Amino acid sequence: MTQHILRAGKISLGVLLLILGVIGLLLPVIPQIPFLIGGLTLLSSENRHCKALLDYVEKRVGWRRSNPQEPARTETDDVRR
Hints:
69% helix
């Protein structure tokens, strides 16, 4: 029962963030990119279309989700190699 409530909350929050992102596209006052990425990130585990769109955004923008298995690279790591 608790998993259903958490899943519904996750989907609701993701849809709300996507709506705010679309409103941000129309109004220059609201930043749209953080809302769109946040909404897609929440919904990507529930919907394959959102996951595909998030993967496209990652490739297009150069943004990358953090992966806990691999440590974050810094500029000093690039210089040493």
